[in-house]
Amino acid sequence: MNILENTREALRSIKGNLLRTILTALIIAIGVTALVGCLTVIDGIQSSVNNSFAGLGANAFDVRNRDIYKIRKQGEKEKRYPNIDYREAKLYKEKYGKAAIVGLKINVTFNAEVKYESKQTNPNTRIMGTDENFFDIKGFKINSGRIFSSNDLEKGTNVCIIGVDVISQLFDKNINPLDKEITVLGQKMKVIGLLEKKGSMMGGGDDRVIFVPLEAGRKMAVGRNLTYDIVTSVPNIKDIENVIEEARGVMRTIRQDELGFPDSFSIERSDSLAKQSESITDILRMAGFGIGFITLLGAAIALMNIMLVSVTERTQEIGIRKSLGATPFLIRLQFLMEAIVICLLGGFGGIILAIVIGNLFSKIIMGDSASFIIPWVWMTLGITVCVAVGLFSGIYPAYKASKLDPIESLRYE
What we know:
Blueprint: H1 3-16, H2 18-55, E1 60-65, H3 86-96, E2 101-112, E3 114-116, E4 119-120, E5 125-130, H4 134-138, E6 142-145, H5 150-155, E7 159-162, H6 164-170, E8 181-184, E9 187-195, E10 209-213, H7 214-220, E11 228-233, H8 240-255, E12 265-269, H9 272-313, H10 315-323, H11 328-366, H12 376-402, H13 406-411
Parallel strand pairs: 5-10, 7-9
Antiparallel strand pairs: 1-11, 1-12, 2-5, 2-11, 3-4, 3-8, 6-9, 7-10, 8-9
Helix pairs in contact: 1-11, 2-9, 2-11, 2-12, 3-8, 9-12, 11-12
């Protein structure tokens, strides 16, 4: 009797005890649902969190000036690196802008006083010059008005976009700031956009800001040795390591860094929160796997008990098959196949339930930000575990059945 015939015999036996088979498969299905469902919920939450962090700029990294070495070794002078200048920043954007989204920024000043008529801000307003990509990469959103046009960026027109803290300090609630002129570092700037409140873990600096076109910022800081910050956005946060290494190679070429020497710039990742969330979800995955494993272990014990009962009920059948020439190996194979088939039936049902329940709980927890997840890895794991459970549960009953004496089995009632 080959494996195919054993499978058919197992299916006939399952069909002959349909109610018991359904109950047994249901036990397995519950175990698989617990395992795959928990992991699906966690993956759904992680996907939603990654999407949220991407909107906050966590899927980006910054290329900046490298700090000087502050520790002197054997009387050596501190190593100073030249600032990233306009030419290098533009060249990086031209070379790498096709592989990722690149934005440029300069800090004109961190302590400006901005005026509108008789009102003025505190001397801690940030003035930054940016290009067209910076807002999307760093998660700044326009509440009303518009972003910089191509004409604004090319000609450096005197227009600006202001944060909510600046609005609250300069304008009364009954005044619409759009199209008003404010004085920034002695220059009249027309307000064309109002930012949504962004907040910041470092004290709200992202709301105490005024953005001007990059060229306008350069004019404001004429005569100063500016440094340019380069922000690069990664479409998928999981690819950030590879993208950073590619960007490092491009920037070393532009800066003409020699082989064997350290980078003359620094790369700072913006995904620290995302990495923290990933470490938390790793712990949750371990907990979810533990819960599912314990549930499946209980299901395996229940299946073994049912298979032992099945061996006892079918003692005469085993005796007849042995008397007709069935070897102990074929008897073992039949009962093993029966246990595996029951586990697979329960496993497929459990996976379907796990996908539905897992995504439902993810939706409840994360709301509209949750995305539908099909956990292919966990589905494969679930099926593999089902086969393992079938082998674990069926091997002892199969061994017991194969060792039955055919004469004694035929006499069994």
